[in-house]
Structures are given as structure tokens and as C-alpha cells.
């Protein structure tokens, strides 16, 4: 298993190109299930989850072919030959559940493995299922699979989500594009990745209004066409490198990053003493003064994203004063805390909140990654620490971050990937 060795204490300076967003790209690929024509996606990141999604789409009979030599533009489309999403793929990547709505909408049936929980929480999919039932689907759970059918096709209706779930909004939104009549999703999630998906679906001929607001109105159409779409830049990758600049007192230009996508992250960086400057097609982040403790509460967009919580915690471990981080989205997203404490951090968890008492410095240690963002929080800690940190189980990181060692080395970090 590969691992990273990080020798900390180097200031990061220079430019990092932010890749296409994992959490937009995966859903945009799934949108390829909604048409028999070709969907051409560019700015595709080279990460393991995108590979897994290619495997899943091919399992459904959909062709996924690179258009350029590097495979950063993909052509997706074709007839659906299987409506089954098997356990071995879904258990690898929870976003696989998003094929359920599109399969039902186009093929009128689906058999999708239940995803189960993961390291950060139990993560039920009840809102996806209830919403699809509202659109007329018959759903039966059997042998760990969701068996769903809508022989006459889905029919539009009003769906009130009790919580603004990102995945449920996306599943229902895609399903509704081919339903008969009008669907209204109330209390829809407003994450920028959903707006990116809506933009692409509308290019494919869907009729969706309200992107970026809490109410999506979808007028179903007979069929969707092919289209071309560039995946938005990854706001979480952008925020992650901003924390790396923050802990090292660095100065980074994050190419492709957009302030408007970062929501509450910008204000929180500034409160912590990291300056954020908007430039043309880039964000510049730098820190000259001390890091200061801040309080954070994770919330749906435009609030502070749960996917940035672990990275901020690593940075705040060496801030002046205390910080309180409250996690409201997932019930078990503090797995990085014991590892950060092994590096000298002083963090106590009480229920859904963590108190971080800033220490003078962290010290390198062997640590273990538990999930995607937790992995990067340990890299951030390692970059700011004295001495050497070895991070193992980095397959979690490979799910969602491309070329971490290359990007960080190019801006002055001492980081090495050891392949075994
Ligand atoms: C691939 C992808 O885009 N993943 C993102 C997506 O995950 P995902 O789409 O799974 O996140 P949701 O917004 O659906 O989940 C948020 C909370 O709602 C709960 N819930 C969700 C659905 C449901 O049917 N029932 C239910 O109880 C979940 O268990 C969780 O506690 O949004 C999360 C919240 O911004 C991010 O952290 C993930 O990175
Ligand atoms: C939690 C994440 O992803 P997923 O929903 O795919 O587990 C994430 O991107 O931080």
C-alpha cells in the first residue's frame, strides 16, 4: 500500500491548478444515463472515484470513451443494457446511488445495491427513496438491494425534503427531467455542484428553473439530447490548499478557484488570519500574521462545508487561542482527531463539537488516513509540523485528490509518495 512521507516546516509559495470537482463530475457522468446521445464532459479530474464511475456506467452498457490523449475529456452515452448497480461497485463509492433516479426515468426500472454507511456516518438514503415514490416509483428492499420500477414512467409531483440533502436533490432532479409533467423540489440543496448539474441538464434539453435556490422546478421532457459541458473547478480542493497555505504561512495562487463557490470558507479563512484575494480566474491566499482560533459550524451551502471541516481543524491546531468546531451534517466525522492529537494537537471531542486548544507546534508522526478529507487534514498537519510524518492508507486520498505530491512539491513542500 502506498504512503506519503512529509517533512514539515516549509513555507508554500507559487501556483496550484485546481482540478475539476469530484462532487460535480460524478453526477455529470451519471447524467449521461439520461440520453442515448453523446454527453461530452471536459475538465475531468484523474481520481479514483471517476474511474469507479466509469466502471459503473460501463456496467449499465454505457460507453465511456476518452476524447483527448490525456483522458480529461470523456464522451459518455449509449443504450442502457443493464439496470443493475452491483454491491461491489456501490460499496466502493456511495455516489453510485445516484444512478437510481436516472435508470428509473429512462429504463423505468432499476436494481441498485444499498450503499450502507461509511467512516463518517450511517448515511441512509430514505429521502432518495421517498422522493422517487412520490414520483410514482414502486420500491422494494430485498437482499441488500433497492428494486425499483415505474412501468408507465415517472410522474411529476411536489417533493418537500425535510433536510436539504445534496444526493437526494440530485437523484430526484435527474429523475424528474424525464417525468411526465412538473416536479417541484422544495428545500432543495443549493450546493454549486447542483447548479453545475442543472446547467448541463438544461443544455441537454431539460427544463429546470431555480438552480442555486431552495426550490427547483422541473418540467419533464420526452427525451434529452447530447451536450458539451466543462466540469466546474473543485471548491473543496481549492479550500484544502488554502489551509495548506495557512498552516505554512504561505502564499498560493489557486488557479481556477472561485470565491463565490467557497461560501463561508472565505470568511472563516479571513477570521483565522489567512488573507483571501480574488483575482481573474484565481484566488490568492496568503498569511503573514499569526493564525487565530475561530469557531466553525458545518452547514449546507452556503454555510461552512463539512468537507472542509477536517482540513480547518488541522490548521487551527496551531492557531492562537481556542476554536470550537461543531459538525452538524455527519454524526461521526471526527476520525482525524486522535491522529492529530498523536502529532501534538490538543483537541477534545464532546458529542458533535470539538474544542481545539492551539499549540505552539505539531510534531511529525506515523499517522493513518480514515477517510478522504481526514487524509488531507493529516497532510496539512504534516506540512506545518516539525519533523517527519508518514501517512498510510492513502487510497482514501486518491479517491478525490489528483497528484497531491506533484502539486505540493511544485510549491515548495517536501513530500514523497512511496509505492509498494
Ligand atoms: C459525492 C458527493 O457529492 N458527496 C457529498 C454529498 O454527500 P451526500 O449527497 O451523501 O450528502 P447529503 O447531503 O445527502 O447528506 C447529508 C446528511 O443527510 C443525511 N441523509 C441524506 C440522505 C437521506 O436520504 N437521508 C439522510 O438522512 C446523511 O446521512 C447526512 O447525515 O454532500 C455532502 C454534504 O455536503 C458532502 O459531505 C459529500 O462530499
Ligand atoms: C464525503 C465525501 O464524499 P462521498 O460522499 O463520496 O463519501 C467527500 O467528498 O468529502
UniProtKB/TrEMBL annotation:
Catalytic residue positions: 118
Keyword Cell division appears in the UniProt entry: yes
EC number: 2.5.1.7
UniProt keyword annotation of Cell division present: yes
Domain of life: Bacteria
Keywords: Cell cycle, Cell division, Cell shape, Cell wall biogenesis/degradation, Cytoplasm, Peptidoglycan synthesis, Pyruvate, Transferase
Pfam families associated with the record: EPSP_synthase
Main localization (coarse): cytoplasm
Chain positions with 2-(S-cysteinyl)pyruvic acid O-phosphothioketal modification: 118
InterPro entries the record matches: Enolpyruvate_Tfrase_dom, Enolpyruvate_Tfrase_sf, MurA_subfamily, RNA3'P_cycl/enolpyr_Trfase_a/b, UDP_GlcNAc_COvinyl_MurA
Localization (cell): Cytoplasm
Classification via Gene3D superfamilies: Enolpyruvate transferase domain
Pathway: Cell wall biogenesis; peptidoglycan biosynthesis
Residues binding phosphoenolpyruvate, per UniProt: 22-23
Top-tier EC class: transferase
Domain Enolpyruvate transferase: 7-407
Family under the similarity heading: Belongs to the EPSP synthase family. MurA subfamily.
Protein name per UniProt: UDP-N-acetylglucosamine 1-carboxyvinyltransferase
Organism name: Asaia siamensis
Gene: murA
Amino acid at each position: 500500500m502506498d504512503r506519503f512521507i512529509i517533512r514539515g516546516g516549509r513555507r508554500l509559495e507559487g501556483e496550484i491548478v485546481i482540478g475539476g470537482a469530484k462532487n460535480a463530475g460524478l453526477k455529470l457522468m451519471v447524467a449521461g444515463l439520461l440520453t442515448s446521445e453523446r454527453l461530452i464532459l471536459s475538465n475531468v479530474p484523474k481520481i479514483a472515484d471517476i474511474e469507479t464511475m466509469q466502471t459503473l456506467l460501463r456496467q449499465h452498457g454505457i460507453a465511456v470513451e476518452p476524447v483527448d490523449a490525456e483522458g480529461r475529456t470523456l464522451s459518455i452515452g449509449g443504450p442502457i443494457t443493464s439496470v443493475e448497480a452491483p454491491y461491489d461497485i456501490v460499496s466502493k463509492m456511495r455516489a453510485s446511488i445516484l444512478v437510481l433516479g436516472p435508470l428509473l426515468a429512462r429504463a423505468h426500472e432499476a436494481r441498485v445495491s444499498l450503499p450502507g454507511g461509511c467512516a463518517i456516518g450511517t448515511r441512509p438514503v430514505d429521502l432518495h427513496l421517498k422522493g422517487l415514490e412520490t414520483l410514482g416509483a414502486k420500491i422494494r428492499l430485498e437482499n441488500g438491494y433497492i428494486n425499483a420500477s415505474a412501468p408507465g414512467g415517472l410522474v411529476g409531483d411536489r417533493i418537500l425534503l425535510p433536510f436539504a440533502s445534496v444526493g437526494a436533490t440530485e437523484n430526484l432532479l435527474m429523475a424528474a427531467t424525464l417525468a411526465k409533467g412538473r416536479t417541484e423540489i422544495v428545500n432543495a440543496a443549493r450546493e454549486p455542484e447542483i447548479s453545475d448539474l442543472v446547467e448541463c441538464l438544461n443544455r441537454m434539453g431539460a427544463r429546470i428553473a431555480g438552480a442555486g435556490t431552495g426550490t427547483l422546478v422541473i418540467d419533464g421532457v420526452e427525451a434529452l439530447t447530447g451536450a458539451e459541458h466543462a466540469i466546474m473547478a473543485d471548491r473543496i480542493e481549492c479550500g484544502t490548499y488554502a489551509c495548506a497555505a495557512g498552516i505554512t504561512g504561505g502564499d498560493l495562487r489557486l488557479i481556477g478557484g472561485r470565491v463565490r463557490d467557497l461560501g463561508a470558507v472565505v470568511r472563516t479563512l479571513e477570521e483565522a488570519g489567512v488573507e483571501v484575494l480574488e483575482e481573474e480566474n484565481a484566488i490568492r491566499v496568503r498569511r503573514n500574521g499569526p493564525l487565530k482560533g475561530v469557531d466553525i459550524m458545518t452547514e449546507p451551502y452556503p454555510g461552512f462545508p463539512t468537507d472542509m471541516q477536517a482540513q480547518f481543524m488541522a490548521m487551527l491546531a496551531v492557531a492562537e487561542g481556542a476554536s470550537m468546531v461543531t459538525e452538524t451534517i455527519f454524526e461521526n466525522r471526527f476520525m482525524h482527531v486522535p491522529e492529530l492529537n498523536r502529532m501534538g494537537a490538543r483537541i477534545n471531542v464532546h458529542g458533535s463539537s470539538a474544542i481545539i486548544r492551539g499549540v505552539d507546534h505539531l510534531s511529525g508522526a506515523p499517522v493513518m488516513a480514515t477517510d478522504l478529507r481526514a487524509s488531507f487534514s493529516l497532510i496539512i498537519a504534516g506540512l506545518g509540523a516539525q519533523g517527519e510524518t508518514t501517512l498510510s492508507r492513502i487510497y482514501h486520498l486518491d479517491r478525490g485528490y489528483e497528484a497531491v505530491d506533484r502539486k505540493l512539491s511544485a510549491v515548495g513542500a517536501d513530500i514523497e509518495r512511496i509505492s509498494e
